[in-house]
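Hey, can you fold this one?
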Amino acid sequence: ANNLRKRLAQLLDHAIALDWIKANPARLVKPYRIEGGGFHPWDDGEISRFFEVHEPGTLAHRAVTLVLYTGAARVDAVKLGPWNIKGNRLEYRRQKSIRNKGVLVSIPIHPDLAEVLDNLPDDRPFLATAYGKARSPDGLGNKMREWCDKAGLMICSAHGLRKACARRLAEAGASAHEIMAVTGHKTLAEVQRYTESAMREGLADEVFAKLIS
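Sure. Predicted structure:
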């Protein structure tokens, strides 16, 4: 329902721009309040379980490693290839913000990711199909569903893996702005949740250490 409201609002904004209507009634309707935190962020146990089932050399292993160490969304992950490697960095512009020239993401290539990407063909995306063509975002999502189900990870998804990347950065002590530089988010609201929850857990450990002493 919220997605329908959003699309209608965009459509009617265009109608206003064409002088077909004077006001956008969709903007007057409030969206439904959604409880919960959205997609489930993978925990470290789930990541380990996935890699136990999908070993190095498989497309599944490569896909999860790529997203885990870049935080790339599906729409960006399927387009990444050797042409995005600049020295020891991986650079790309986020598709979601492409109308504004795209948010530039430039991150160092983690050694685990470098090992996975080594010796891949240089004329196709990292997650190309068997025919060497670019995979669609939905196609990657469907594959991720199959791979996760095979590993018994029924609540895990591709987007949840992107959130896991942000969570791990937060737990490593990264600030919200530092996480944004990796994931390409444009606002603090999304990444602050990971930072705050990680900091809260760390502070709880510290205060209990003081209590025990």
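The first strand starts at residue 85 and ends at 86. Let me know if you want another pass with a different chain boundary.
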